[in-house]
Amino acid sequence: MLMRSRTLSVRLWRPHFGEKRSSKHDLGRFDWKVGKLKLTGSQKKRYDEIKSKIKARAEVVNREREETIEKVRDEFNKENPDIEGIIVYLKEASRNKPDLMAEWLDYFKEFYDILDDDQKARLSRMIKETLLPIKSFM
């Protein structure tokens, strides 16, 4: 019998291609994890500012993703879908993904910089615990 803890199932949840992603859900997970760091008042204020930027960007990314999926779905619903056209479109749509990853890392760095040494150590342990089950990281 396979049993999962609430933590594991929350951490591993990822929407499937075509499934609607909720930035509210993702930000709720951030809040839950960040709550364990016991931020000070000024740190919470900075975290809320960073989170607002992340939320705004995530909404744009999710909207672009939904538009991409809709366009591909519409093409595949045609009697003779243009496969080459879909491939060209998807390649073009994916060109900004490396920049997006760098942007998310910048947000993480911005957050990391507001933490004190104890909180940084705690966050590092939390990340390590998350990555331990993933064999490709070890």
Set out the fold topology.
Blueprint: H1 6-12, H2 23-35, H3 41-76, H4 83-94, H5 97-112, H6 117-131
Helix pairs in contact: 3-4, 3-5
Strand content: under 5%
Q: C-alpha Rg, in Å?
A: 19 Å
Order of helices and strands: HHHHHH
**Number of helical segments with 4 or more residues:** 6
The low-confidence runs, each spanning 5 or more residues with pLDDT under 50, are 1-19
Largest β-sheet summary? none
Mean pLDDT: 81
- Total domain units: 1
Tell me what you see in this structure.
With 138 residues, the chain is mainly α. It has one domain (41-137). Helix content is 72%, strand content 0%. The protein has 6 helices and no strands. It has helices at 6-12, 23-35, 41-76, 83-94, 97-112, 117-131. α3 packs antiparallel against α4 (83-94) and α3 (41-76) packs antiparallel against α5. The longest helix is centred in the middle third of the chain and has 36 residues, at 41-76. The two termini are 26 Å apart.
Characteristics:
138 residues, mainly alpha, 6 helices, 72% helix, disordered N terminus
Brief write-up:
The protein contains six helices and no strands.
